[in-house]
């Protein structure tokens, strides 16, 4: 549809840097905080050119105690001011007894949006300047987010639309354009930062969450056009947990899939096999252990890239290791198995790998560990598993 009119508006410039110190932090902690913070910045700039020179504490004494009320002492109010700066997250203080040296590390202030999202800072600022003045500032500096534009829908293009070869997201496999359309349909106009996108893409890749599931979670995690990241993460986690709970019960109670496979009923075998075959390995890890850490994810990636194992084979290996080690996570054990699978060229064969596991356990029953011979490089897959502890 061709528009008949246009207009141009400009977003108000938000507080940042030293303006935030004066207008926001200073309102909470007082003018001494502003003055001392500015003094610290000046000192940092000066000492940047003399990084090897240590400044005597007498400089603090002389700079802020000109009348020498307490000679050779740093005024008590300075320590109180530093304490306030530390509490506000503007300074970190380190003391080295060995060097008899105190170090003040200056931290950049939050910008206006970040400041508002900090519940403690926001409440203190409202208390200091009053609700009316606070609302006036919000109106001035958040106006672009609150304007309805006569119920117009945002149709802005993102970077990928014009500046990528295949016009798809460079960094993420999840289609954020489609997500944006769904959010607009629900009259939700929020901007997802890199952290939120990474979370969404991670759950999409690992657990195959649908566009509708992700959209619903974002809607339920948003209040007043502000996304609650922790709530979103918890909702994703709960979906995965609910989705996998029935299958988890099946998998975790069937050790006999390996140990007594020949007498296990076919329906149970099929249920477990379906888990191995149909889930990616990240999700299967969740089935077994209830949570996933980065080292486990890294191992799965290594099994794919370095050992060329298919996910269904990886899942079989993870399951076998889980039962063989009584539910304990043993990375070296898993890598030993993967190496043996690769040597025997069975990375793509679920059936061959399962049969070798079963045969290895059968052999273990027949042979005493006291009769184990040294493992040679030419050892067969089945023999190798006989001697894995």
TrEMBL record:
<protein>
    <recommendedName>
        <fullName>DnaD domain-containing protein</fullName>
    </recommendedName>
</protein>
């Amino acid at each position: 549809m061709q528009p008949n009119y246009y207009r141009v508006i400009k977003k108000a410039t938000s507080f940042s840097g030293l303006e935030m110190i004066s207008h926001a932090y200073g309102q909470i902690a007082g003018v001494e905080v502003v003055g001392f913070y500015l003094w610290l910045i000046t000192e940092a700039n000066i000492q940047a050119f003399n990084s090897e020179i240590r400044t005597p504490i007498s400089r603090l004494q002389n700079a802020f105690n000109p009348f020498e009320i307490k000679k050779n002492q740093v005024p008590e109010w300075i320590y109180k001011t530093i304490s306030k700066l530390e509490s506000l997250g503007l300074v970190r203080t380190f003391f080295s007894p060995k060097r008899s040296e105190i170090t003040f590390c200056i931290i950049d202030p939050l910008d206006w949006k970040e400041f508002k999202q900090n519940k403690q800072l926001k409440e203190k600022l409202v208390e200091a300047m009053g609700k009316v003045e606070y609302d006036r500032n919000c109106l001035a500096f958040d106006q672009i987010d609150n304007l309805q534009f006569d119920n117009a829908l945002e149709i802005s293009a993102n970077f990928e639309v014009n500046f990528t070869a295949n016009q798809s997201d460079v960094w993420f496999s999840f289609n954020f354009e489609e997500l944006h359309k769904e959010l607009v349909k629900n009259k939700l106009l929020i901007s997802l930062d890199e952290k939120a996108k990474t979370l969404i893409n991670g759950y999409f890749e690992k657990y195959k969450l649908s566009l509708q599931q992700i959209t619903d979670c974002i809607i339920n995690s948003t209040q007043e056009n502000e996304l609650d990241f922790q709530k979103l993460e918890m909702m994703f986690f709960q979906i995965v947990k609910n989705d996998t709970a029935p299958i988890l019960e099946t998998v975790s109670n069937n050790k006999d899939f390996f140990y007594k496979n020949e007498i296990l009923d076919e329906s149970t075998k099929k249920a477990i096999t379906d888990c191995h075959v149909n889930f990616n390995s990240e999700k299967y890890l969740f089935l077994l252990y209830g949570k996933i850490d980065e080292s486990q994810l890294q191992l799965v990636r290594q099994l794919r890239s370095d050992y060329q194992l298919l996910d269904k084979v990886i899942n079989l290996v993870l399951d076998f290791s889980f039962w063989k080690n009584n539910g304990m996570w043993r990375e070296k054990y898993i890598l030993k198995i993967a190496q043996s699978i690769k040597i025997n060229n069975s990375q793509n064969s679920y059936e061959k790998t399962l049969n070798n596991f079963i045969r290895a356990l059968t052999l273990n029953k027949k042979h005493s560990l006291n009769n184990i011979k040294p493992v040679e490089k030419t050892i067969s897959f089945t023999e190798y598993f006989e001697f894995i502890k």
